[in-house]
Every structure is written in structure tokens, then in C-alpha cells.
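Protein in question reproduced for absentees:

***
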Amino acid sequence: MSARSIPLPFTQRAFDVPVLIMAGAALNALLVTIVATLNAGGSASLTFGISPFQLVALLVAVKLSLGEGTQQRATPVWFDAIVLALVLVPSSAVSWAALALYAAFQAIYTTSERRIGALVFLGLALASIWSSVILKWIALPVTTAEATVLAQVLSVIRPDITQFGNVVGNPETHNLIVMTKCTTTDALPHAAVALVAVAFLLGDVKPGRLWRAALALGLIYAVANLVRLAIMAWSSDAYALAHGPIGANIFDVFQAATVLLLGNWASQP
């Protein structure tokens, strides 16, 4: 019988290689993002342009990928080489694409916690491709839709607020340009992946409970992001507070805490 057809325990040192490749691909993509953020003048966030959800999902994916499970088929050497070559390309999009391909292979041919870890890596990669590539292709309709909702909400208490495209505010005093990074559709996929990761890390997950947690997360984040955008559109002083170091880091902590709490709830019996 061929060695490839025998399920093998991941406790053997050789099978740490797939985990190293997946973690390396994710870290390279995040490093490219950090460098790009710093080259653009830095960031008010402590995570330097990286979503807290990405960090949570990455840590959990590594933890689960080093857990229980069996290897039902070894990764071809040529596949390892291609993925490693793609990871060396200084592009976060290419690294995420390489991770998605490699994680999908691991998810198919591994079991137990290892499979869940690979699926988390896959979700992380797909969410990152969505926010860094696909969302940019449809940026105008997405940002315009978010700006429209924001303007409708603000106009209830601020009749002077107007909206044109993705611009909201008072043309004579202060305007907010809604960018893709400001929208709910940018961060929510990462949040959902982190939620699933935390839930599986903490315990046995029932699909119905996880779905309810995901719906609650979407609602909470949409409302919280809308409130933050409303503050930034209110005035230049309010914008500086919400978009500056204090506001940015408070919002990041809020996002991470929400994911952790809902993930813990979803993992309860």
C-alpha cells in the first residue's frame, strides 16, 4: 500500500510543514500590509492597518492546525514549492491567494481540529481577498450605499446634512468621504471568520447557535460602524476624535471584545 493512502498522525515533525507554510503565507501578507501602511504615513491604529479580526483568526488557525488530526494525503512537493514561491512575491493579494489554495487542500485531506484550522486559514484568506481586491473593484456602489444610509440617519437630527455619492456632510462646514475601509462590508467578513475561529477554539459548536451569534455580530457591527461614521461626519472636531488614535483604538478593542464574547456564547452547550 502506498504511504500516501495511510492516515498519519500530525504529531510527526514532518507534518508541521503545512502549518508553517500557511502561517508564513498569512504573516507575509500582513507584513506587506504593515509596510504599505507605514510608507503611506503610518496609522492611528495600534495594529498598523491590520484588522484585529485577522490577528485573532490567525492565532486560532495556528492553534487548531497544531491540534488533533490525521493526514490522509501528503501535500505534493511541487505544490509546496509553488506556494512558497508565491509567498515570496511582495504582494498581500498573491500571498492570500496562495494561502487560500493551500488551506483548501489541507481542509480536504486532514481531519478533526486540523481540518477546522485549515478552514479558518481558508476563511481568513478569502475574507482578506474580498477586502483587499474584490471590494476595491466595486468601491463606488458600496461606499455610496453606506453614505446614503448614513445621510438618511443623520438628516433626522441634522437637516443641513446632504449626501452626494460617497460624500456626506454640510458642504459649507465639514464633509466626510466614505472610503471602503470605513464600510461595514470591509470588516464584517473578517469578523465572521474570527467569530467562528473563537467558537471552535473554546468548545463544541452547534450550527444553530453559531448562526445566531453571526447574525448578532453583523447587527452589532453595522450599528456601531454607523455610529462611528455619524460622529466623523458631524464636525471636523468630532472627526478628529473618532478617527484619531483614541477613537480608532477604542473601536478596535470594541470589535475584538464583541467577537470574543459572541464566540464564547456560541461555544456554550
About this structure: The first strand starts at residue 8 and ends at 9. The longest helix spans residues 207-234. DSSP finds ten helices and five strands in the chain. Confidence is low (pLDDT under 50) at residues 1-15.
